[in-house]
From TrEMBL:
The keyword Transmembrane applies. It comes from Letharia lupina. This is RGS domain-containing protein. The chain crosses the membrane at residues 269-291, 297-324, 420-438. Pfam families: RGS. Residues 104-117 have a biased composition (Polar residues). Residues 93-117 are annotated as: Disordered. The keyword Glycoprotein does not apply.
Length: 446
């Protein structure tokens, strides 16, 4: 009976307020129907790029870029993963120049929830960036004597996905004057990673920055004050908590739910029309045979049309096409089409090593902005937008297909298809029995 009442991951309402509000209202993993997400598709596996398409880290960024339009959350989050690691591995003499920040967290309006902890977290999230700690401002958390063991864990966890952070180039001179607030007065430049932190502030935190995080006025002022005095990772505690809560409890469940759909809007509309047509054909067969002189048992043939049509309409209501699922494929998304891409671009995309993406070197061609210091997340000028808007409806309907490789996603789709078949059977059986029980009309043939 459990298959009849299986629920896919529920949609987590996305609030329009700043990140602090989103993290408070986003709910806990239990509220987000985490039980409906298999372990293979956990947040940690997606972030570590251990999932296959269409649930890989690149697909997650695609979703945040083109669907929810808040890709800066993940871009900044990935930078924090790398920055926290590099700060841990920095020489102790350099780290002493950046003392832990102890004032900011106490002023924060966003306190960590005791329900944020996720069992079975991988070292990347549980230890390496300490995402579930109550407070990383405690200096003992960052003592150099832990660096060696930390580096060992890092090498074991991230061997499969190197974030490819290229060396940070000197900050652009005009960027700070353009984006940074007037009260921004940085600490001495001899602090480790100070130039990089300045670029991060100008790119993600300062008002009007290209990838401005959706922070409240008070939270933004708190973070700027902390980064003004130190480059220690504890200065990012507030942002870390809000991003982890938002990505884990809101963006990730919604991404998994969105990834379940294997057809575009045109295909889904056509599929629903096809399913309704099958149901109507079933009624036509049943009514015609009921009014005839033929044996009532011939009316059972209408059940096949009812069951097939009902199965498809239930599956289509959740964005699933039974035929595409049986073929283990899905249709391309609009931004994945390469009709507009020339041969050189195509060769470059195929030749990229997905395990080591150098963000800075791909910013001019990579279709999704994976680079840390890239342009604003505005895809209006990308070639596919104009191309797809001029594409004929029937061509969108028969969009090309690509294999679904992630077994965790296939398991969710399998359960949803079986659920649709089971409910269709429960609806078809009493309907068939009712038509079989009706006496013959004896109207034809004569």
């Amino acid at each position: 009976m459990s298959i009849l009442f299986y629920k896919r991951p529920e949609y987590v309402l996305r609030h329009n307020g700043p990140l602090a509000e989103c993290s408070r209202k986003g709910g806990t993993p239990q509220d987000c129907s985490a039980a409906a997400i298999p372990p293979e598709l956990s947040f940690e596996n997606v972030i570590c790029n251990k999932c296959l398409p269409p649930c890989s880290l690149q697909d997650f960024l695609d979703y945040l870029t083109y669907v929810t339009r808040d890709a800066e959350n993940l871009q900044f989050y990935l930078w924090m993963v790398d920055y926290f690691q590099r700060f841990r591995n920095a020489p102790k003499s350099e780290k002493e120049l950046s003392p832990p920040w102890k004032n900011g967290p106490s002023q924060s309006a966003c306190r960590p929830s005791t329900q944020m902890s996720v069992k079975g977290s991988t070292p990347l999230v549980a230890k390496e960036i300490d995402m579930h700690s109550e407070d990383i401002s405690n200096g003992s958390t960052w003592e150099g004597d832990q660096s060696e063991g930390y580096a060992d864990d890092h090498s074991q966890t991230l061997d499969s996905v190197k974030f490819g952070m290229s060396p940070i180039s000197p900050p652009v001179k005009h960027s700070r004057e353009k984006f940074a607030p007037q009260q921004w007065q940085v600490s001495p430049q001899n602090q480790p990673f100070r130039s990089e932190i300045n670029r991060i502030v100008n790119h993600y935190i300062a008002p009007g920055s290209p990838r401005e995080l959706n922070l409240s006025h008070n939270d933004r002022a708190t973070v700027l004050q902390a980064l003004e005095h130190t480059t220690h990772p504890s200065a990012l505690t507030l942002v870390k908590r809000m991003l982890d809560s938002t990505l884990r409890n809101q963006s990730h469940p919604n991404f998994v739910r969105w990834s379940i759909c294997n057809g575009n809007r045109q295909w889904t509309v056509a599929l629903r029309a096809f399913a309704i047509m099958n149901i109507l054909i079933g009624f036509a067969i049943a009514i015609a045979l009921t009014l005839s002189k033929y044996s009532r048992w011939w009316r059972i043939f209408a059940a096949f049309e009812w069951w097939f049509g009902t199965t498809n309409i239930i599956a289509a209501s959740q964005g699933l096409c039974v035929l595409l699922h049986r073929m283990h494929t899905r249709q391309y998304h609009a931004w994945e089409t390469k009709d507009y891409t020339n041969d050189d671009d195509e060769a470059m995309l195929k030749g990229l090593d997905i395990n080591f993406i150098n963000y800075e070197s791909t910013k001019s061609k990579w279709p999704v902005k994976m680079e840390v210091f890239g342009p604003a997340n505005d895809y209006g000028d990308e070639p596919w937008v104009d191309h797809y808007s001029r594409k004929a409806w029937w061509r969108k309907l028969f969009e090309r297909r690509i294999p679904v490789q992630e077994n965790g996603l296939k398991s969710i789709q399998n359960r949803m298809i079986r659920q649709a078949e089971a409910w269709a059977l429960l609806i078809t059986i009493p309907l068939t029995v009712a038509f079989v029980a009706i006496p013959k009309g004896n109207l034809y043939p004569s």
